Recover the amino acids of this structure.
């Protein structure tokens, strides 16, 4: 029997992206239980709800990024926007993680960070500072817009995609993303991301795609 996700994907033309790693691959920096719960309980739920709402709004043939942009412009589609944005945000998040990641980035992304913030250490302070300004749940992003790298915080289920940003890295700051491993210590979770998990190789590929004109949005 088809799963609800498979039925929804076939009906709407949307597809729940495969995880880029196995649930246990990020241990000990991020536990198997934390990843499995996050994906199956939260990401998959937002995806299922997006499929159902998109079908009801006759927007079922749009790609997820197109659906978000369309829903962001229509107040009546606010619930659809919230779930679609969260589904898309989670895909960004998983692609922003890797075993053995983190640390000072090299390549073009490292050069751009140094040019914008003066040093990697200053970037880290700005990243933590941006998280501190976010009251409650939300997301922290490294994005590219208007020929400039940016640190962006969004509240709840919002996404910078709706405002024309290209996402380089995404960090989920909802409590469910870190509570199993870090309790309420959000700062420790952010440090772990930067020191052990950030997928700088992915961020560099996206940035090089933007520079070459091959990437217009993170999809």
């Amino acid at each position: 029997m088809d799963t609800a996700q498979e039925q929804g994907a076939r009906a709407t033309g949307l597809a729940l992206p495969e995880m880029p790693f196995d649930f246990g691959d990020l241990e000990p920096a991020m536990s198997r239980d934390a990843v499995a719960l996050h994906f199956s309980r939260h990401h998959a739920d937002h995806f299922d709800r997006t499929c159902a709402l998109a079908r009801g709004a006759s927007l079922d043939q749009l790609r997820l990024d197109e659906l978000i942009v369309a829903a962001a412009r229509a107040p009546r589609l606010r619930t659809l926007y919230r779930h679609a944005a969260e589904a898309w945000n989670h895909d960004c998040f998983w692609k922003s993680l890797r075993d053995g990641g983190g640390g000072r980035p090299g390549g073009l992304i490292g050069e751009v960070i140094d040019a914008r913030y003066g040093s990697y250490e200053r970037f880290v302070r700005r990243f933590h500072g941006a998280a501190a300004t976010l009251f409650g749940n939300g997301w922290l992003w490294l994005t590219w817009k208007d020929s400039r790298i940016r640190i962006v915080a969004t509240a709840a289920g919002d996404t910078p995609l709706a405002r024309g940003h290209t996402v380089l890295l995404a960090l989920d700051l909802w409590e469910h993303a870190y509570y199993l491993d870090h309790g309420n210590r959000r700062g420790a979770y952010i440090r772990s991301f930067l020191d052990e998990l950030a997928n700088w190789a992915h961020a560099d590929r996206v940035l090089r795609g933007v520079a070459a004109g091959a990437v217009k949005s993170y999809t």
In short: The beta strands are 138-145, 148-155, 166-172. Residues 1-12 have pLDDT under 50 and may be disordered. The longest strand covers residues 138-145. The chain has two domains: 4-15+31-95, 107-211.
